[in-house]
Amino acid sequence: MSEAQTLELNSMQLPSEEEEEEETNGEPGNDVWGRLFPVAKGFVQQDLVKDEYVFGRGEDCDYSFEQSGGKANTHFLAFSKIHFRLYREIDKLNPKKYVVFVEDRSSNGTFVGGEKIGKNKTRVLNSDDEISLALKTNKVFIFHDRGSSESRTDALPPVCSLSLCGDVSLSLSLLCLHRSSGNTTPSPNYWEEGHVER
Question: Where is the composition biased (Polar residues) (predicted)?
């Protein structure tokens, strides 16, 4: 990267936390407590504002795979009309915190970290868990809990593909993902730690 490109990057203004909240696809006036970052073609980021969401092919779902572009996924026909439900409840041991759950409502399976949940069964969803649909290898989302101090943004893959901008677009993606956790700068050793190949 040339000095001019580095200077251009350094002088860019990222949106403030307030501006970021205004651009969310959640309900206005509410805090975003979590995010689902897409890791598969045809899916979009979902900011979590409400306490419960239903995901599936059905048009009545809070997150419709058909309306979000999920048809581009090669396994689209294996997704159920109501595939899974994601919700949070107040932690009984610590009423100041929430616990997030995912319930499998599908015929072909919902997987968290490669483990099948099982139809009509529920599992705790932790920050940085990967959600796969229909097959354990069909990773679709990575869950990020904004209230978790244990969240590792380095576990999130870059969302931009390398293009003419190369490292520039990739660096901006990593910075935005890191910023979503409340930090303002990426890990200085991100490249050296072997998380992403250049």
Answer: 1-14
Query: Cα angle vertex 110, ends 79, 138, to 5°?
Result: 70
Instruction: Name the residue ranges covered by the structural domains of the chain.
Output: 1-30+152-198, 31-149
Tokens, residue 94: 């610590």
* Each residue's pLDDT tens digit, 18-44: 544 444 444 444 689 999 999 998 899
Say what the pTM is.
Answer: 0.63
**Locate tokens 């350094």: which residue?**
10
Supply the CATH classification number for the domain 31-149: 2.60.200.20
- Give, in order, the Cα–Cα distances in Å from 96 to each of 87, 91, 92, 99: 16, 7, 9, 10
* CA gap 101, 35 in Å, rounded: 14
